[in-house]
Amino acid sequence: MVIMIHEDVIEFLSKVPPFQFLDEKTLASLAGSLSMDFYPKDTVILKQDGKVSEYLRIIKKGGVKVSIQTDEGEDIVVDYRGDGDNFGLWSIIEQNTQKTTVVAVDDTICYLIPKDIVQNLLDTNAVFTEYFLKSHLSKYIDKTYNDMLTRSSYYGGTDRILFTTQVGDIAIKEVISIREDASIQDAARLMSKHKVSSIIVLSDGDLPSGIVTDRDLREKVVSRGRDVQEPVSNVMSPPLIRVDARDYCFEAVLKMIKHNIHHILVVKDGALRGVLTNHDFMILQGGSPLTFAKDIENQQSIEGLVPVSQKITRIIRLLLKEGAKASNITRIISELNDRMVKKVLEIAERKYGQPPVPYCWIIFGSEGRKEQTFKTDQDNAIIHADPANEAEAAAIAAYFPDFTLFVKQGLMQLGFPACPAEYMANNPRWCQPLSVWENYFHKWVTMPNPEAVLKSLIFFDFRPLHGETSLAVDLRHYLVGLLREQNVFFARMAGVATLNRPPLGFFRTFAVEKDGEHKDALNLKIRGIGPLIDMVRLFALEGGVTETATLDRVNALRETNPFIIELGDEIEHAFEFINLLRIEHQLDQMDRGLPLDNFINPTTLTNLERKSLKESFQLILKIQDGITEFYSAGMVN
Fold it and tell me: Is the pLDDT confidence value at 614 over 70?
């Protein structure tokens, strides 16, 4: 421990709150009583449940990590603190046990103020006391510490259970089954005897060939006056949707929403383990996203869908409360929004009749990547079969304009704004036969001017949503083949992926907006999540990957793309973190009745969040620099 020169200490403290508010005499007296200590990286400075701190430590240079350990033995990081920050006050005030563990994350130098001097300042200096009690304690103890304790308790409670419980733990262990040649009446009696809502139908080889639910009995037997002596196989529902016993309940919920089912088989090591129902999840969780999917399915008009669509925000709140990752939130919201759009399309088909040719409704943008949070602009199009003759072409021209306008207006009623750039199916340019779409793609790839590259960025994230999906599959296969050896096109895309640089200054400071509506804020979408999406899209298209979701693309490239091999985990973490910040920011804006945007003021973040955001931005910069080096500089620029 080294005694410090007064002038050096005074100069430092005069720039650090709350010491900068002390008068000269008090500051000089304080400087005379300080000492300094050096802590090499990874030094444990304070230990949870250990000896209380004898000093208030002020970080002169370096940084520390503050963490707590739960009763289950899990370490949870509470905060990171750097130059000018302090730690140890809570122990001085309580004089009980040390509440946190503090570890040096870099070689760290601290000024040390003895506890008796800190106590004296708290007792005699109002400015000093107000700062610590209102700012320090409120921010780090009331908010962060208690929030983290609450968060740790979720692991033993029900709020996080959807994401921490494996399906095998709650699936019915005894599976009630029946042979294919048994009668419907036998199946009903067996279900009644065991008080279950479903029964598994087995083939001659004792393999599951279908499932019969109480809904099947109502809709396929009772309502139709069917002979109950018929084989049960006549009313079973194939194919069976399955989930592995080791998967988390979230994955089962997602499949049930996607396939519009209320029962799902659980298998382990290839053998049938049990059955899960929507009721199981409602008991487990106290509510389920499946209920929203059911509400959507039950509606038969746009007007009926409106109140249901307004409830989806509750799902976001629920998932945030459960501690869900951003990707889990966006996947469930995308599935529910998919269901909403499909329902609108079904209503339109009933109104206008079946189309004259097979068609596929495709979506792109964040919808196409399954990365929606709150409702975004409509981004959709139609691929339809090529007309066989002039009469069919005339029928197509007469049908789709009214059909697509109805869908556009219906989606607007449900809170999906129209795309300002008219990238929607009601624009005749984006309602075309497969052959025209192939010509579009060929032109954009082989003549990649700025407009062509822009359209590629928008449309190449497409996925089929409704109708004849083989049309979209054929277009995707055409695109994969078209992109082989298209080096000029990929160089142009690389230029776009490196254009928007994250807002970091020379000294790892945030480069925020200097003036205007978003003064002192930075754009998490344009300067953060957007470059990540663009870079991963580039790698995926070049690698022939057909997935559209960003994280699915990352997983598909983990063994082939050099950037993903080296940095795949870091990319995933950065993508999750920045998206979660966006979701929480927009939910807060919604609560306050403000228009939603992606601008966030970094001063509103905790030290831990600021550190994580800076690391995410540095990762993006690193990959962008690697892309620029990989491609010809002239071509990228």
Answer: yes
